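Input structure tokens:
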């Protein structure tokens, strides 16, 4: 048994020593601490990178190439040495730029340089390009131009259903000849540029044509078509060592297919305007069916923590707009959850919006957790329970890391007894945000500020 102090009471929480977390799963009695036996090994860790998202969402348009370059220069100067070596394009571009195989070559027709040029430029800087694109999208103007699928004599137009009533996209029909060659060829096209990250969006729309806010956005396909598409994409990514990020998945049947075919999954709604409300309070504690199962990142990360772990699924809490949070406590809490959960840390603040907040992303002691492959777990994955706000996990050298979060609007007491980790009674304690050694202790307690966090590292004597 573990005694955990929450609020002003001591709550006794059962834990599984082998996994380091208690579980709360009223809907499903299957063991949640290990992935299904058919889940492949995941060779990746949570990526550190910058995304264009903040510019795109504010402007509701593509990012101009000069703005793209200014942000790359800023990243190179301020964050590259901390491990943030990838920059990733996002949506809002136009599809007019395509090659002889119908593959998209550039973010916008207004850009001077294409993706291949930027991939080479970034490589020369010791950085890399991340790709936002869905290989299940067909560029209609390319199909109308009579383009043939690479390596075949099959018209691109033949794998697209002109009459399909789908919002925004022309989707690949996976039951058509040439579809597999097109999808895998698309990924190979980017792999040949040296791209090692692919962010595939709007998967729920392809799966069953339903959106929580928009209603019907396409046809309801057989589940086998969705699985086939994921399998093709995963096979091509694995062949080329590409981290596959699945975005907007319904995660039906406890993410059964996404666990099998993805390396990373989105687990909450879009960041949009940022702020603590979007991060923690938006429909707090409400579990739903389909995309997205939980609205906010804290709920989503907490619940889906049971499928994460070393060499397991990476959780993606979407883009971070640290400049939108009210104070230092909120900013520390946001970044800490990404690191403690082993998830992606995706900077979307820009050179002209970051203000004096770079320090939040530059905590070397948290960054060291990622280098170790650390993935912590909450004491329960039920986000409605207060003990879900305490996360813990063990580093490869035997040290423990414990994070005490506070989602509430008032100060909260948090604490832990070291003998219950389990470890010897006394240990050295270090605060990873204050960067201070706190001394030798046998237990730890603290008062966490509203929306704040305290992260400690516990090292055996």
């Amino acid at each position: 048994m573990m005694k955990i102090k929450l609020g002003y009471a001591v709550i006794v929480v059962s834990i599984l020593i082998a996994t380091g977390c208690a579980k709360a799963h009223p809907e499903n009695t299957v063991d949640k601490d290990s992935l299904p036996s058919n889940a492949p090994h995941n060779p990746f860790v949570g990526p550190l990178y910058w995304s264009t998202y903040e510019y795109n969402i504010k402007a509701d348009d593509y990012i101009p190439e000069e703005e793209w370059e200014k942000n790359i220069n800023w990243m190179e100067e301020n964050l590259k040495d901390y491990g943030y070596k990838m920059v990733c394009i996002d949506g809002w571009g136009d599809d007019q730029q395509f090659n002889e195989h119908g593959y998209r070559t550039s973010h916008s027709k207004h850009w001077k340089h294409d993706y291949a040029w930027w991939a080479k430029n970034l490589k020369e800087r010791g950085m890399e390009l991340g790709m936002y694109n869905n290989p299940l999208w067909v560029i209609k103007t390319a199909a109308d131009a009579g383009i043939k699928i690479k390596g075949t004599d099959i018209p691109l137009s033949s794998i697209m259903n002109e009459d399909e009533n789908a919002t925004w996209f022309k989707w690949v029909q996976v039951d058509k000849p040439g579809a597999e060659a097109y999808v895998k060829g698309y990924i190979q096209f980017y792999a040949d540029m040296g791209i090692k990250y692919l962010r595939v969006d709007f998967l729920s729309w392809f799966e069953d044509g339903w959106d929580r806010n928009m209603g019907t956005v396409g046809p309801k396909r057989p589940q086998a078509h969705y699985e086939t598409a994921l399998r093709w994409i995963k096979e091509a990514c694995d062949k080329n060592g590409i981290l596959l990020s699945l975005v907007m998945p319904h995660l039906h049947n406890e993410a059964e297919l996404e666990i099998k075919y993805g390396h990373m999954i989105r687990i909450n709604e879009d960041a949009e305007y940022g702020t603590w409300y979007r991060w923690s309070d938006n429909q707090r504690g409400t579990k739903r069916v389909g995309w997205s199962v939980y609205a906010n990142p804290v709920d989503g990360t907490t619940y889906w923590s049971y499928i994460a772990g070393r060499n397991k699924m990476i959780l993606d809490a979407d883009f971070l707009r640290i400049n939108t949070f009210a104070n230092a406590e909120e900013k520390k809490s946001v970044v800490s959850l990404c690191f403690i959960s082993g998830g992606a840390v995706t900077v979307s603040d820009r050179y002209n919006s970051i203000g004096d907040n770079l320090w939040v992303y530059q905590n070397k002691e948290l960054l060291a957790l990622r280098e170790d492959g650390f993935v912590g777990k909450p004491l329960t994955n039920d986000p409605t329970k207060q003990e879900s706000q305490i996360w813990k996990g063990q580093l490869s050298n035997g040290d423990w890391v414990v994070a005490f979060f506070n989602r509430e609007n008032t100060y909260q007491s948090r604490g832990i007894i070291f003998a219950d980790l389990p470890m010897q009674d006394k240990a050295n304690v270090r605060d990873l945000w204050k960067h201070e050694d706190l001394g030798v202790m046998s237990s730890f307690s603290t008062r966490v500020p509203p929306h704040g966090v305290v992260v400690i590292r516990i090292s055996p004597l």
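Confidence is low (pLDDT under 50) at residues 1-34. The two ends are 23 Å apart (CA to CA).
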